[in-house]
Automatic annotation (TrEMBL):
Residue stretches making up the HORMA domain: 43-281
Coiled coil ranges: none
Family: Belongs to the MAD2 family.
Residue spans of biased composition, Basic and acidic residues class: 17-28
Pfam families membership: HORMA
Source organism of this protein record: Neurospora tetrasperma
Protein name: REV7
Length: 299
């Protein structure tokens, strides 16, 4: 016998497979289903990841020398010293990129997010002749590093990005005059996750990322970066107007059902685990992949 169709919308942080399992268990054992995660708690957790991702991108740009260090401000996030680029266009680009990623997460399309660092697109004359010569040994725009974030366990928001943003605006309007937020949010598994615990998890991830970045050799001058998403096998390509996304190069395409072999630069030649972040319903992993071009650069 097939499971009955649920009459209420799926919780933002409760996958469809989990919901089917709960309804099947109720049918056989007549146990009451667990309570779904409240929408206001869901939006807090998703916003927490978005804020973390903004800070992480700025930190990566700082520690990997994509922009000169004097262009960064010292700030604090999660009770941790961090770095933020002060150029308005850089800040605007990062905000727009994270917003576009959040929309795809809400649609349930994203498996992984990558902050990709490329070698200089054009050969530049450097004051360091050794660095200039070594940077010319690899093709322009080669993939040097991929800072990866696995968000495959993030469920979709019911209805996609537009309902999520509408709820976010309504919630912000409702709490506009409040000076504080609740200390704890309750999850369907009856576990309690406090915001200080969540901040501690995110702080630990940022610390590990900074430590990994500081240990590596400096990149050549003129490197650039971008943000990419790897889609789930069943996900539709994010096509629309305005077009926020473009297809990645074949060497960066992950394996799929139609393409069993991943691109040449997927996975890299060296992988450094960073940290797993787990706070109630929020779970993701992050790691660093160093590409073949970087290995050639260091020879």
């Amino acid at each position: 016998m097939s499971s009955p169709v649920p009459s209420s919308p799926t919780s933002p942080l409760q996958s469809r497979s989990e919901q089917r399992h709960q309804y099947r268990r109720q049918e056989i054992y007549e146990e009451p289903p667990s309570q779904p995660l409240p929408y206001d708690s869901s939006i807090v957790l998703l916003q927490s990841f978005n804020n973390f991702f903004v800070v992480a991108i700025h930190n990566i740009l700082y520690y990997r020398g994509i922009y000169p260090q004097p262009t960064f401000l010292s700030a604090r996030a999660y009770n941790l010293p961090v770095h933020q680029n002060r150029h308005p266009k850089v800040c605007s680009w990062i905000r727009d990129a994270v917003k576009a990623v959040a929309a795809q997460i809400a649609e349930g399309r994203v498996s992984r997010i990558a902050v990709v660092i490329h070698s200089p697109l054009e050969a530049e004359v450097s004051s360091d002749p050794t660095q200039s010569a070594s940077s010319q040994t690899i093709p322009p725009g080669s993939v040097l590093e991929r800072w990866m974030f696995d968000v495959s366990r993030f469920p979709a928001w019911p209805g996609g990005a537009k309902p999520m943003r509408a709820f976010e605006k309504a919630l912000a309007k409702e709490h506009r005059n409040e000076d504080s937020r609740d200390d704890e949010y309750y999850f369907p598994t009856a576990h309690t996750v406090s915001l200080p615990d969540l901040d501690e998890q995110l702080r630990g991830a940022l610390q590990r990322m900074a430590h990994a970045a500081e240990k590596m050799d400096a990149l050549p001058e003129g490197c650039t970066f971008t943000v990419a998403v790897e889609l789930r096998d069943e996900a539709l390509a994010p096509i629309g107007h305005p077009q926020a996304w473009i297809p990645s190069e074949p060497n960066l395409q992950p394996a799929s059902r139609s393409r069993p072999e991943p691109g040449a630069d997927v996975g890299g030649v060296k992988t450094t685990p960073i940290r797993s972040v787990e706070a109630g319903a929020l779970f993701f992993e992050c790691w660093l992949e160093e590409g073949k071009a970087k290995e050639m650069l260091n020879k």
